[in-house]
Amino acid sequence: MDLKDLYRDVIVDHNRNPRNFRPMPDASAQAEGFNPLCGDRLTLFVRLDGERIGDVSFQGSGCAISVASASLLTESVKGRTVAEAEQLFTRMHELLTRQDAAVDPATLGKLAALSGVREFPARVKCASLCWHTLDAALHRERAPVSTE
Amino acid sequence: MSAARPAPAPAPEAVTGGPLDIAAIRADFPVLARTVNGRPLCYLDNAASSQHPRSVIDTVSRYYETSHANVHRGVHTLSQEATDLFEGAREKLRRFINARSTKEIVFVRGTTEAINLVAQSYARPRLRPGDEILVSGLEHHANIVPWQMLCEQTGAVLRVIPITRSGEVDFEAFLTLIGERTCLLALAHVSNALGTVVPVERYIREARRRGIPVLLDGAQAVPHMPVDVQALDCDFYCFSGHKMCGPTGIGVLWGRESLLEAMPPWQGGGDMILAVSFERTVYNELPYKFEAGTPHIAGAIGLGAAVDYLEALGLERIAAAEHELLALATERLADVPGLTIIGTAPEKAAVVSFTIEGVHPHDLGTILDHEGVAIRTGHHCAMPVMEFFGVPATARASFAFYNTRAEVDRLVDALDVAREMLG
Q: Which ipTM score applies to this complex?
């Protein structure tokens, strides 16, 4: 188990320079994600243009894994339909939590950089927080989400 | 004495005068010989839970192998042996904190249960709406939540003594908060999150002058300094076995006999009664009144062995060794670029809480673990402390007497790895 499997260059880059890291005044939905034990906290904003995610952004603070995961999420769901985003959520969940995941990381683009996380069970919750938060936003859930 | 009786815990090899022989002490702790991620374990999470010397492990094993039965019940040999060992441990604990009588030593699951017991049995029947419980901003959740629950039950109000930027309880503010309505003062003796040693004596003096009882959360204090409950002159003192080289699931509530005597039982069941009929139950005497059900017998006996071990080393010498590690760690960490130590009280236990610019504590925890260095990261069950300092979490290195100066170097080296990787 190499630490570089977890902190790959893409992760380090997205942690240092998170993409779409901004508030969104015209968001059509937003949700809070909070893992109190480790202190990861983020707000995810979504603007829907019909069935399509026209814009997505986030704010907050957390560990490198949670920040990079959220940053990668915004890049990969922007422009997709809600149904596509939810499908991606399911595949990411499988990639992060199952050793025998049938998901081919090659089909996930940059998100594949997170495939090392499952070797670090204590950190899976960090990577998955933003995805559960996106799911909550798309379902207009008000209660903050936690993956702890 | 039966031949099957477990032998007394062997004295540690390192007992002589002068400074502790750390190498000999480390040989007493089997876990310290293991590796983590291919490196020798560097265990710096002692404030969360300490490790066990061979004598504690062997005492517990021997008890299970030779003398286990239920206590206080049978006339048969094993039951008598188990009872003698269990009550022998109580006497060791009494001596350890210099309580007047073993009647004042109540075995509980740990500090948390001890505080809940006092909240529900001592405070709840006395509190009226508007009465106040006073705690400090340094408290562990275990010394906050039981009081909040009590306030919900009684209409009492929880008041909080603020802390200062150095992580000390603000004594001047305390003097303005303690008053007519204060019914109990509940204070950490040593802060788990920051290591601050609270000068509890002056708080106790003020409270006693006003006839206000004082509970001390001693979970972080007993493993690291001599504690004398009579000299402290407090009313309740709570601590856990697993932070002082003893087993988990066992701890002690010490209370003044007169207060414990007047308190109703907390939980009902076997062992806490003298006689039961469907019309009336006569409760057992102290301390059994508060020990419903079969206790954690092996845990108590193991804790007794931990007391033997710590006393053989000497709490003063333990404190001196740990203080040396604290001074070294504080000095070395101060040189790490971007590192901020949270909690800079003049008197501290060997705990260093810190943040590093650009590297989240959680990432530090993972990277350090990869280097074999175990530290705690997160809010340390003291979220109000984190909020006060405006951080979501800190990294915390907490030292025990079996840690070495070389392990301070390993901590600093591992931090360099983390900074290089993420900073």
A: 0.89
